[in-house]
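Folding problem:
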Amino acid sequence: MEIPLQIAFHKAEKSDWAENEIRARVEKLQSYYDRIVGCRVTVDQRARNVEGTLPPVVRIEISLPGKAPLVVAYEPERLQQKYQRPELGNAINDAFSIAERRLARLKEERDGRNKDGHHDAQNQFFGQISQLYPDEDHGFIMTMDGSNLYFHRNAILQGDFDKLRVGDEVHYVEEVGDTGPLATKVRTATRN
């Protein structure tokens, strides 16, 4: 990187393990995308509750040549939905996982590849419906690692959203939306 890594803790206790984890994950990002110019990571404890269980926001800003900075801000609400006891380690891991996927996508675009239909088979994951909200046109898929992934009615490619039931098995492609990871191209594995 042309600009040295910047790590800042705002209203959050600075810890050596967190800083070392961030440095290791930034090195990993550079292996995904070798043209990173600079990276700034901020750990920001925006709010606290009585129990002290609100994890901090981890914000990653990656400077790239000829592009707007790639920014990932992983909000505590997503962690609380995904983990029973969210902590800083979860926030760091999830934020960097999103950054890795975005950089991998940028590299594919740069190299002239994309994830069109014929590539979806290798990018599909298997899960099962864990929550459904038909009146709100969305639901959640439990992934193989036990986390919940949002999907919208319009993401269903095969099957009928109105006939889905909790426990139904599905195949899906994971992508990153404006608020974090989500399931797209959802196909039912069982008949509806």
In short: Residues 88-110 form the longest helix (23 residues). DSSP finds four helices and ten strands in the chain. The beta strands are 6-10, 38-44, 57-63, 70-74, 124-133, 138-142, 148-152, 156-158, 169-177, 180-188.
